[in-house]
Amino acid sequence: MVVLLAGVLGGPAAAQDRAAIEAQFRSWLSDTVWPQARRKGVSRETFRSAFEGVTLDWDLPDLVPPGTRARTPKRQRQAEFGQPARYFKPGNVVAATRTGREMARTHAATLAAVERATGVPGRIVLGIWGRESGYGRVPIRHDVFRVLGTKGFMSTRAAYFTDELVAALQIAQAGHAPGKAMTSSWAGALGQPQFMPSSFLDHAADGDGDGRADIWRSEADTIASIANYLDRHGWQAGRDWGFEVSVPDSVSCTLEGPDQGRPIRDWAAMGITRVSGRPFPEHEARGQGFLLMPAGRHGPAFIVTPNFYVLKDYNMSDLYALFVGHVGDRIQYGMGDFSVPWGDVGGLYRSDVAAMQRALEGMGHDVGGADGLPGFKTRRSIGRWQEATGQRATCFPRAAMKATLR
């Protein structure tokens, strides 16, 4: 939830208010953050160097300055939760595929070694690397200590970001990246794989044998770290991430979700088929599969494996995990676009979706929380409401529903 700061700290007193809050920030660093960092082995010199000249970044989202309260945003900043068609813009997919093939050739030996060690296919590593940082070509310019300091001091998830700030100080203490090399995204994610600091401490790997896990400048370390993350989150070697499928009208979109899995052969027996016309591989047919319809009946559909949800652990978005798997397949197998185009869905205000979610909750549906994001629980709850009211289930929020779901 994002606070609109113009209304909160506007007017003649804004500069004075900000100066007072900056002073509170400095006190918070010394009274709250330093004791936690010291207990984790961070030296006074590392701490001083990290915050030398650092001030609050008032342009970040999700800020709740002292004396204000959070408000539900109208718009969603993260592309992963926006319009599917925009997330899969042809130019973005083609560019990620083209550069990914170059990287597959350049780093073939490293990718092969990592796959042997972890079971994670090189194409999947490349898909994540491309999405997170354009294979290291997208500039990452934020000062991680300023970002995490700001968010730890005044955001809707202050405790979480405070812990991440301390983890970032531990990384600096260990010397994995010198000085100002520790840059991050606006959300505090680090380096080419875009690890949050705690994920770095748990999963970053030394891929080039120099004794450090430098995910900012080392491509080998980046590749090894991504694969190590997926391996430790349960990647099942030998299984795919999923398959694009055709879902007949006789199969309800309300069957979507990781809690409604069944053997893939059972989905096939219900009439679900691969769009390629090929049968599901026998070893996959025996395994667990899950229906995924990220735009409801308004876009492509998939049967995904448990590995899809390992990808989703990397970034909690269906569209993100789908992008990674799709680009990886294009890199290795030369696959084209999805057979079904994305419909004109998404783009509603988050506040509108949240209102629909609250209405569904009032009817007893589990939407996964009224956060304004159309996740699988919201999608299938809409479908169940549609079926209960005699409508065809389409399983995605649309503007026309605002009048009745309120």
From TrEMBL:
Transmembrane segments: none annotated. Residues 24-329 form the Transglycosylase SLT domain. One of its GO terms (molecular function) is peptidoglycan lytic transglycosylase activity. GO terms for biological process: peptidoglycan catabolic process. Pfam families: SLT_2. NCBIfam families: MltB_2. This is Transglycosylase SLT domain-containing protein.
